[in-house]
Design a protein that fits this description.
alpha/beta, TIM Barrel, 8 strands, about 15% strand, binds 3-methyl-2-oxobutanoic acid
Amino acid sequence: MIRLPQLRQYKTEGQPFSCLTCYDATFARTMQAAKIDVILIGDSLGMAVQGHTSTLPVTVADMAYHTQNVVRGNDYSLIMADMPFMSYATVADALKNATTLMQSGAHLVKLEGGAWLAQTVRLLVQGGIPSCVHLGLTPQSVNVLGGYRVQAKTLDSAEQLLADCKAVVDAGAALLLLECVPTQLAAEVQKRFSVPVIGIGAGPHCDGQVLVMHDMLGLYMGKPARFVHNFMSTSKSIEAAFSQFHQAVKTGQYPRPEHAFNIELPPL
Ligand code: KIV
């Protein structure tokens, strides 16, 4: 059974771990068979399941429903549930909505942001709710960012991201998740902080790797993102594709350099 202490041990031992998004019991059961370490009930379900063009329409009730479905199918993986758009705008909202997701069966919640989340992270952990802070490309802020783009490409923005990581780790964040940032910056975050760091489009040096399930099964519309690999193209079954992803992460075969954003930054 995978829980937070196991992920910390993996980090200490330098053993990468696998994470996939999942939204229902059947896929959760299949991920258990494939020994996927962490399941994320991502608000990407807004696109992958509900057919929206962003994660913004997803509600706490949607997240609770899908979390309940996933936990019925899997008692092995660590279960992380996304706090959806504007569900943690105030500390009171965060406490109330994170409680709903924990009571739905999650082991921790994920929030998108930076240093401004420090007080929320502190109060959540004091109340018994561990959290993962998602930085870099934060899809709930797509309208502020102006699109789904690589983040922290300049020295100033990379230093800002490091300062954000420090603030939330000091406040008690259990995990960090970096999306679409330069490989060099993700490597620095992995080295600088003791908490496990999960990456997506963040290069090979993160402690864990996450992909959206539909993407790694080749079920994307249009052109897939640079970091996506279709594991179904070389697998005979969905369980085999999940196992292949797990093994590729564990053995360092995924992600490869072509999946990463190798943008050179000055020394950090
Ligand atoms: O919602 C989601 O699927 C995510 C991943 C992209 C990390 O947050």
